[in-house]
Design a protein that fits this description.
about 150 residues; alpha+beta; Aminopeptidase; 6 strands; about 30% helix; about 30% strand; globular
């Protein structure tokens, strides 16, 4: 099990991102989960414009490569910060991010991967994605149930 890995990404539009993978301690996940769970944080240095499909594809490639190298479950929380959008949309920033997140995997036809969306309805809706190789489907279901039980 690793501790933390940070991968920088500069898009052709000049946006600078850091993709951080941080292993979650076993004491914080159910004992029945065999795979390691990794929290994913994507931060942007200069949020000054709209990204394109190429950027989403780069994110997906980085996440997939990390999955293949480490055989883990990725825990991806869509935050509430505002996001620049191509056109007016009547959805929250978290829902918009979630749809982008799903789209980046769907476009690559990832039949070997699971992208499990969890929506927790609260004062503010929370969107969480659990992503892993299909061989970890049982762990993804266990984690999904655990997250839903915590609300």
């Amino acid at each position: 099990m690793g501790k933390k890995k940070i991968i920088p990404l500069t898009t052709k539009e000049g946006h600078n991102y850091l993709i951080q993978f941080e292993f979650i301690g076993k004491e914080h996940i159910p004992q029945s989960v065999k795979a390691d769970v990794v929290d994913v944080l994507i931060s942007v240095e200069n949020n000054v414009g709209i990204n394109n499909g190429s950027t989403l594809s780069q994110f997906a490639s980085i996440l997939k490569e990390f999955l293949v190298e480490n055989n883990v479950v990725l825990y991806c929380y869509c935050d509430h910060a505002e996001i620049i959008r191509a056109r007016k949309q009547s959805m929250s920033p978290q829902e918009y991010r979630s749809k982008l997140f799903s789209a980046m995997f769907d476009k690559q036809n990832n039949s070997d991967y699971i992208n499990q969306l969890i929506i927790i309805n609260d004062e503010v809706d929370h969107y969480i994605h659990l992503i892993s190789l299909k061989e970890n489907e049982e762990d993804v279901v266990l984690l999904r149930n655990e997250v839903l039980n915590l609300k």
